[in-house]
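re: ur question from earlier - yeah i can do the single chain one, its not a big deal. heres the input i used so u can compare w yours
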Amino acid sequence: MDFVHSVLPHVVGGIASFLIIFSFQFKDLRRLLFFQIASSVLFGLQFVFLGAFSGALTNLCGVFLRVAVYLRAKRGVLPGEKKDASSFRSPWVWGFVLLFLAAAVLSCDGPLSLLPPVSMILFIFALWRSDPLFLRRVNLFACSPMWLLYNLFTHAWAGVFTETMVVVSIIVSYLRFFFRKKA
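and the output i got, formated as tokens:
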């Protein structure tokens, strides 16, 4: 087995893993998203090296999603949106839902390959709420379990480690930000 298929995916995945785990330690949504954008790029590259194209395509689409949410958090709204409108009323949300559905169709290689795009569709609604607590809950109970299964299926060991650590990191962030008693 050559370097690209045996070592490189796991090195790239390891760096991506560190970035996404670290991202959950920010209370500020824009900082959290910055580190998740970098992580998505690297995880996408890892999945390309592993030949797991659903994960690669989903992560590529995830970069665009996170950039849009980052800009939305910075500006308050994106073109075509009304301030404080629900995520179900945003044309951007539905555009991204269609993007991830297209990714699912283009990269479908059996039922397990549908887990990444379905996870990201759920993630869209969590991101659009601009509520870090809700984002953490959706990751903890839906997105991380789906990605964990996909990573096991594709032998993306850095991803398996990541999803395990994301769960731990989210629990730590709950303790730090939401359950800490004020002195």
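The chain has one domain: 3-166. not sure if urs matches, ping me
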